[in-house]
Design goal:
It is a single chain. The protein is α+β, with helices and mostly antiparallel strands. The chain has two helices and 25 strands. The N and C termini lie far apart (229 Å).
Amino acid sequence: MSTRGQNPTKSCFCVDMVNVFTLLMLLIIREGSGNSGWSVTFENPNPCALKGNSVEFRCSYSYREGETVRNTTWYRGKLNGTIWTRVALSDLPSYENRSEYLGDRQHNCSLAIHDLQVNDTGYYYFRFDTDTYGFRSKKSVYLSVTELNVIVYPERVRAGEIVTLECKTSCHQPSDTAWFKDGRPISKTVFLAQAEDSGNYVCAIRGRESEQSDSVALDVQYGPLNTSIEVSKLGHLSNSPSVNLTCRATANPAAINYTWYRTTGSNSGSMVHVGSGQVLSLTSVVLPHSGLYLCQARNSVGENNLTKSVLIVDHEDINHFILVGIVVKIGLVLLLTLIIIWIGKKTCYSAEDKKVRRYHVKRTINNSLSQNV
C-alpha cells in the first residue's frame, strides 16, 4: 500500500490518543464502584469516643468474583506542609500495640484502636490488594477523640446559692457519671452551696472511675464563721502587765474589719466600743479590767455574731492577791489577839492589886485594935 501523501506525525498522534483513551476507559472500569464490584463501605464514618476508650471502625469491602485478596492496610491521613499524604498505621510507632485489625481477607475490614488519645483525631482510609489490582477507599472515617469536661455553674457563689455540676463531652452527654470532690465521692450534682463545698470537682464514667476529667474549682464565699478570741497575757499584774486579745475567724474572703466591745456595769447588755483591728492591746491591766469582751468580724459577704471572751487575771496573780489577803488577815487577827491578852492581863493585875491593898489595910486595922486593947 502506498503511503505517499500521508503525515506520519499525525498518524502517531492518533495512535497515542487511542491508547490514552483505552487506558482511561480501563481505569474507569476498574475504579468504578457499584458497577465494577469494587467498593469499601464504612458503617459509621464519623465515630466519636472518649480519651482512654476503644473505638471500632465497622467496615466491609467487595471486589470482582475470581479475585483473591493478598493484602489489607489501614492508613492515617496527614498533611505534610501543603501535601495530603496517607501513612500506614503499621509505620506509625504511636499506634503500635493499640491498633487491631478485626477483619479478614474476605469482606470484613473492621479496625479497632485502643487507649485513644486526643491526637488520634483525624481521617482514616482502607486499602486492599488482589492478585491483579489494588483498591483504595475514596471516602474516609473521621474519628473524633474527646475528653470529659466538668462544668461548675457558677464557679464562684455565696453560701446559700444554687450550684449545678455537669459532665460533658463534645460528642454526647454521658448517661451514667460518677463525681468526686477533692478525691472523695459525692452524690448530688445540684445543691445549695455551703462553706465546706469549696474544692476541686472531677467526673468520670461510672465503672471507669480511674479515668477522670480535669478538675474545676468551686469557690464558695461566706461570712466569718467559728470566731474565737485568744488571750495572750504578758508579765504580771505587779509589773504593769499588758494583755493582747486576738480575734480569729474563718471567712472567705478573709475578714478585713474587726470591732471590739466591753460590757459595763452589772448589766451585760450595756456595751461600749473599746477598739478596732484584729488585736486589742490592753496595757497596765488591773483587776477592774477583768470582764466580758466581745469581738465582731466582717468581710465583703457579711459579719458574725458577737463572740464573747471573759478576761481575768491568771492563777499566779490570783494566788498573789489571795496570799497578801491571808497575810493581812492573819496579822490583824494576831494583833487583835495580843491587844485582848494585854487588856486582859492588865485587868487581872488591877483586880489583884486591889485585893492586896484591901488585905494590907485590913491587917493594919486589926493590928491597931490589938495594941489598944
